[in-house]
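Need tokens for this chain, all 240 residues.
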Amino acid sequence: MLHIAICDDDRILLEDLRREVESWAKEEHEACSVELFATAEAFWFAWEEKKNIEILLLDIEMPGMSGMELAKMLHRSGEHIGIIFVTGNPDYALEGYDLEAVSYLVKPVDRERLSMALRRGGQRARNRAALLVPVSAGEVERVYVSDMVFLEGNGHDTILRKRDGTCIVAKITLQQLEQGLQAKSESFFKPHRSYYINLSYVERITKKDVQMEGGTLVPIARGKWEALNRAYMEHFRRYF
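Here are the structure tokens for all 240 residues:
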């Protein structure tokens, strides 16, 4: 589930943006929660308490603490929230991008541009997701979901191939890791009972196998080819 916040001193715009975000989530089949804040100070106090927001739609010019000041505080503290600036003043665009903002939207907000920004923000949040993978008795390793190219079942263990070419032998079954990944990302597909692949790293699909980044060929089980192609095209449309 994506946790989204909207911060703007205009109450009418707050509700309008809430409706737009909820409409986007419904169209994208994306589970999300939406919280509203009328001031940057209110968001900061709430954030310091629970730190569960992944995407922040943020007005810049507000009474008291401005949205830009809030964004700088979050940036300095090392918090990687996906910030989408929403403002009536285009003069702040360069400063906003210096803070690695997801997007910069000028009021009145265009629905298609908002959808694209939310999609990018959601992908950023998923890319930061990680799993704790057991590698030996009492030892675990944190692996970012975005670094996983594919997983290969090997009896009671799972071989996890990372983007940098290294492998981890996880002391956990492929089915157990699959369950954990399903809660973290929509980017994975199971083309064969022994493999679970990250669609972001697919280079080529043939009738018999999938070529992953790095050159590994993953077999496609009988009856899986059409579903794999549909999943890949949907993944490409959504994220690229």
